[in-house]
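Record type: monomer structure entry
Structure origin: computed from sequence
Chain ID: A
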Amino acid sequence: MPTTDRRGEPTDPVHAVSDGEVAFINPKPGLSNYGRYIVLRHRWDGIEVFTLYAHLREVAEGLVMGQFVRKGQVIATLGHSTNTREGISRDRAQLHFKIDVMFNPHFHIWYPKRDPQAPPFGNFNGLNLWGMYPAAFFRTCAANPKPNGAPGAMNFAEYANKQPIAFTVLVNAKPFPWLAAHPEQVHSSNVAAQGTAVAYEIGSTWFGLPIAVWPRAGGEISETERCVLQRGRSVLHWVDEVAIGRNPCRDLVRRSGRGWQFTRDGQEWIELLTYTPETDRLRVGIIGWKNRLANVKASAVASSPASSAALQWHPAIASDNRCALHTPVIVVASLHNALRMFWRQSYPISPRYLAKPFSPLAT
């Protein structure tokens, strides 16, 4: 039980678990389920790690962002602050403690577009701080003492690498922030023998912490997977059914009638992991092309049923399983027929080469 004052409010101090820097302070409990919380930034075995301390009664006087703190230094007072409807009673005062890694340094750009009313936490929103169970980590450290008897010999990178992989996902071989932040996870030896990487296979724990990345050459993925990747989508490549069945609460992947698939949370997880600001510019460009192709399709339908049939092959318009290999031919056919219609509207006699609609599907 926590110690309390005469009003029954907790008075127990909260200490920093390691040397670090104050990365973020949320002094307004009404903005978060975490209530009032602090995030410290650390460097453990070359990896940037964050510790989060939530539901605080108050922040230590004088503590500010950017300040260096020592292991054991008092940074706050235990509390029960939160913004949930149920609240946390005083007799249940608690510390919500997490060991986290930052998922994406561009979160502050990505998230407000999905939630315009997002609180002003920048990259230190809890959705961007992906954690592991601290008790298990500290027990492992205690079980691996240093030669002089001091605890904590376990290397953090080594500990993360030993977590079991529950599923893997294939994404396009383009740079994304996780690769730069965690080069220790990238296994590139296999690509040297196979050729240039066309995809990355990301291995994740059941709770969504990426712990390994394998660049994959063209010969290491199927033609179907290549087709999906060419459309800018990810591929759920492998699932450990036992691990997922034993730990279903995170619910990133789920079995359906068509096999294992990402849930909505899982789709958001991979989107955030691989997001860069360039992704938005590419998406805007794709939407623009889709709109232009839709307009061309409407024009082509008016000019020729054959060109309408040809456009059904375009993956941006039709939702089939074909690769985008037909795109240049279809675009040429579409532009040809649109130009033909424009010419007929402008001149009474059409040129001979525009006399008939062109369709790549014509026999």
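Annotation 1: The two ends are 82 Å apart (CA to CA).
Annotation 2: The first helix runs from residue 107 to 110.
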